[in-house]
Amino acid sequence: MKALVYEGPREVVVRDMPDARIERPTDVLVRITTTNICGSDLHMYEGRTDLESGRILGHENMGEVIEVGDGVDRVRVGDMVSLPFNISCGFCRNCEHGLTGFCLTTPDDPTMAGAAYGFAGMGPYSGGQAEFLRVPYGDHNCLVLPEDAAERQSDYTMLSDVFPTGWHATQLARVEPGDTVVIYGAGPVGLMAALSATLKSAAKVMVVDRHPDRLALAEQIGAISIDDSKGSPVDRVLEETKGLGADRGCECVGYQAHDTQGNEHPNLTLNRLVDSVKFTGTIGVVGVFVAQDPKSPDPLYKEGEVAFDYGRFWFKGQSIGNGQANVKDYNRQLCGLIEQGKANPSWIVSHELPLDRAPEGYRHFDARDDGWTKVILHPEG
Ligand code: NAD
Ligand code: ZN
């Protein structure tokens, strides 16, 4: 089968790989119809992890079921399905509580929790930027989509990751109707957090970034855009909130946070959130703050130890929630919102490319080139 393969930092190629196939009775085999490039793929693409050369990338996958193992009861051949980026078993201590982002079975390593397709440090699984994908524990990991799925792929494809992740940011931040909310980052995840806050009837949603094309997308759904290259974003948030600070904050950037000159400062958005959010306010962090450093003998990248201003955070009596989104906890309800036309997350899609052009998609998305907000790939062209 054709697949997008990681070969080294900023080197990905489309080439022939062995076909994905059913390996265990509980597996489902999916013909991928849509698979997206994610900001999380850039952690591998930019060479910040020890991902081995030859792995197929891609954790935002949807497609048609073409074969099911003997132990699969619920999912049927012909179903259109969305596949949560977290691979989970459904029966471990964490999955029992809905914490499928922290599955204890699927990482294949007793010291770890959480697995994903095509990801460094998250189990041995191949990604779905390919013609076919093996889905472990298929009955549990497939969200069967409504009848209009084939025609509305660019909406439903957001259910595998960025829509639930944006929603998760607002859950962690405990957004309630009438709240003021500030979101750092207007990438796909930040824009989905803005959509989620809007769906939860936030009174005012503010989105901070410096890319005009991305900020314009935030404005399209009624958010206030704040361009931090034009002045202090903290001052703007205070102006917009009568000097109090926002009730809630969401971090949707991660350790690649940089200043407007391009210098990386992993603690920049966290400190700005502490300053932008009111005393006793709540903050949800979905941006990724851990990675593996191929140069370090320590398997965990120490830049994950972000020295943000804990003292000020403490003094303000704020709370923080963070981590991987438990996609399964939200995807059925968010699917309902799409089906009923109450959420149309495809508004962020900038490019739909055949899989063969994936390397070009990676290059432009990684450079955050103007107009390259969300790239979705179709293996069949
Ligand atoms: P992205 O890289 O496209 O978007 C990040 C945005 O942040 C960019 O538009 C960039 O300009 C902006 N930015 C950089 N520094 C900034 C700063 N100081 N202030 C404000 N904005 C700044 O990525 P994405 O796809 O939107 O993903 C964002 C983060 O979410 C990544 O870390 C990704 O790995 C993570 N993520 C987490 C989960 C989860 O389950 N927790 C799931 C998916 C993605
Ligand atoms: Zn993703």
UniProtKB/TrEMBL annotation:
Its cofactor is Zn(2+). Coiled coil: none annotated. Residues 188-300 form the Alcohol dehydrogenase-like C-terminal domain. InterPro entries: ADH-like_C, ADH-like_N, ADH_Zn_CS, GroES-like_sf, NAD(P)-bd_dom_sf. Keywords: Metal-binding, NAD, Oxidoreductase, Zinc. It comes from the Bacteria. SUPFAM superfamilies: GroES-like (SSF50129), NAD(P)-binding Rossmann-fold domains (SSF51735). Residues 25-138 form the Alcohol dehydrogenase-like N-terminal domain. Transmembrane segments: none annotated. Belongs to the zinc-containing alcohol dehydrogenase family. This is Glutathione-independent formaldehyde dehydrogenase. It comes from Streptomyces lannensis.
